[in-house]
Amino acid sequence: MNFEFFIAKRIIRSKDYKSSISAPIIKIAITAIALGLIMMLVAIATGVGLQQKVREKVSAFNGDIIISNFDTNFSKDSQNPISINQPFYPVFEEIPEIKHIQITALKGGIIRTKTDFEGVVVKGVSTDYNWQYFEEFLRAGRLPHYGETLNDEILLSEYISNRLGLKIGDKVVTYFFDDESNDRPLRPRGFTLVGIYNSGFQEFDESYLIADIRHIQGLNRWEADQIGAFELFVTDFDKIRETGNKVYYNVDSTLDTQTIRDKYFSIFEWLDLFDFNIALIIGIMILVAGINMITALLVLILERTKMIGILKSLGSSNWSIRKVFIYNAIYLIGVGLFWGNLIGIGLLLAQKYLKLFPLNPNTYYVTEAPVYLDPAYILMLNAGTFLLCLLMLLIPSYIITKISPVKAIRFE
């Protein structure tokens, strides 16, 4: 049997240990570790969750990388078409990091009802469109079906439909400007509303209407092989800059490429601040937990000074006695981590499935605090907290080497 572990176990199970002077300090140390772990779990889960959720919403409306013509302005309108016949479409064989490519086109329009009107950006999509994100955003109806023949089904945001009093099945008359016609400057198109979405991203929800790309091709008098842009999705968003550069050097010089990190620079700069905030919270929480454990260990050592003196007089080495208290501290850290994981993961699961804490979408782009749970980061967080607290305890345990057996046995 391990001698040091045996002594540590006897100390932990001792009734005097639970009613001693150090008992409240030990409870505070355990509570500090548990609270610290809860704070770290919440910070990582919600911080990373918010980053991923906002990125997914931006990608849903733009893709990860956009290939388009060089325009002379920054309007949300595909003014200069590009040919669909590109060597990288439909599969970008030169860059395996690209997992999907889809064609789109944008055109500004005005929805007109009997009592009101609203400006929109009509986004034309085709059969290759990735509906993955809009399946999550869908609030009523269904997603449009765009097949071989042109149809008038559209997907509209809940924000616009509420403002105009539109519901599933309604006819939506949209007017488009025609620069080439002096007689009819506005060209109407009748659509049928089949689905209503709510992404929670106000900047997009108040603008976008999803329709068949062939409507825009007809309105702009484009050929069937002319489109507004290609939207590319990457396998690893963390490497989007490197992938974006590869795309830029692998497309024709007449085409422009832009990542959504560059297009929505301010949003992603704001999201990057979460990495610093998370690191700061983790550092502070581990420091607080470590200081509390150091205090508890020092009190335990002072409380067991006589025992230390007796063990030294019986021939125990300093390191052997230090191990007794380190084993004791390991137990306390383990108790704190157990309760921290139990409460922290419980709170995160409650938020994930019950949506307990709402957020203002105008500020955070989401309607509730998103939660990202991954066993890998939970294990790493526990292991890191455990090891750092343990390393911090090696320093105060050094005080045992300074205790004299004679003075310790006489210690009152």
Gist of the model:
The protein is of the alpha+beta class and 412 residues long. It has 15 helices and twelve strands. The protein has helices spanning 3-13, 15-18, 23-62, 132-137, 158-164, 202-205, 213-219, 240-249, 260-263, 265-303, 305-313, 318-354, 361-364, 375-394, 405-409; strands at residues 65-69, 82-83, 98-112, 117-125, 138-141, 153-157, 171-177, 186-197, 208-212, 226-227, 229-234, 255-259.
What does this structure look like?
- By secondary structure, the protein is α+β, with helices and mostly antiparallel strands.
- The chain has 15 helices and 12 strands.
- It has helices spanning 3-13, 15-18, 23-62, 132-137, 158-164, 202-205, 213-219, 240-249, 260-263, 265-303, 305-313, 318-354, 361-364, 375-394, 405-409, and strands spanning 65-69, 82-83, 98-112, 117-125, 138-141, 153-157, 171-177, 186-197, 208-212, 226-227, 229-234, 255-259.
- The protein has a 6-stranded mixed β-barrel. The chain has a two-stranded antiparallel ribbon with strand order 2-10.
- α1 (3-13) packs across α12 (318-354).
- The longest helix is centred in the first third of the chain and has 40 residues, at 23-62.
- The chain is elongated and about 105 Å long.
- It starts with a helix and ends with a helix.
- 35% of the residues are buried.
- The model has no long low-confidence stretch (mean pLDDT 86).
